[in-house]
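Working notes for the structural subgroup meeting. M.R. asked for a predicted model of this chain before we commit to crystallization trials. I am recording the input and output together here so anyone reviewing the notebook later can reproduce the run.

Input as submitted:
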Amino acid sequence: MRWLVTGAGGLLGRHLTKRLNTDSAFGDEVVALRRAELDITDPNAVAAAFEHHRPDIVVNCAAYTRVEQAEAEETEALRINGEGPRILAAACARSRARLLHVSTDYVFSGRARTPYPEGHPPDPQTAYGRSKLAGERAVASLLPVTGTVVRTAWLYGTRGRGFVKAMVDRALHHDEAVAVDDQWGQPTWADDAAGLLVVLGRSGRAHGIFHATDSGAATRLELAREIFRTLGADPGLVRRAAPGAFVGPAPRADYTVLGHDRWSEIGAPPPRPWKQALHQALSEMFPERVASAKR
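Returned structure, recorded in C-alpha cell form:
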C-alpha cells in the first residue's frame, strides 16, 4: 500500500511517518511531505503530487493550528483547514484513494459532561473549531464511503512546545507551576494517535468519524501533577490556577472528552488510558529519571 502523509513536519506527521517507516512487516511505501513540499491549498500542486506518487491512502496532518490567532485570522484558518481538505478529498475521489483527515475536539461546544460520541452534532465555539468543521464536512461530502475523519485532542510529543513540554521542563528543575482544574480533556501521546491512524488506514471497514485520543479524562492540573510525580518531582509544586487565569481571544471549552464506541465496529480495541501512555512517553524521554522515581 502506498501512503501519502501531508503535514509531515508537524508533531503528528512526524510520529506517523516514523511509525510507518519502522513497521516493515506490511511492505508499505511511504511518502511524507512537509508543508514546503506540498501546499494542500494549491490544487495544481496536489494534482501533481497525486500524479507522481499515486497514493492508495492519504493521511492529512496538515493544518492551521494557532487556536488563539485564528480568532483574528479566520479566513486564513478556513483556507488551510477547510479548503485544503476539500482539495485533497477531490483529488482522492478522482484517483480512488482513501483519505484519513485529522480533526479536533474543538468542533464541539464543550458544554457536555459525558464523553462526546462520534455522531454528536458539532457546535464549534471558536474560529479554529469552525475551520476544522469545514474540513470535516468537505471530506464527508466528497468521500462518503472512502473518507474518514479522525478527531484527536491535547496532543503532546517528545519534542516541540506545548503544555506537557512546559510542565516537563518545570518538573525536571523542581520549579513551581500553575494549571487550571476546570478544563477536562484527554492527554494524547502523538505516538498513540499515529498508531490509531495506522489501524484505521489498514482496516477495510473504517469510514465516517473516529476519535483517536488516549482514553480517560483529566484536567490540566491533574495532568501536570502526574508529570511531576512520574519524573520524581513533588506534585504539590503544581498549584491550582485562579479561575480565568489563562483567558485568551479564543474561548476555552470546559469539557471535550471524546468517546471511542466505533473502534469495536472494526474489531479494534479502544485506545489505552492516558496515564499509561504518559508514563511510557516520559520513560522513553527520561528513562533514568522515571526509573529513579519508581524506587
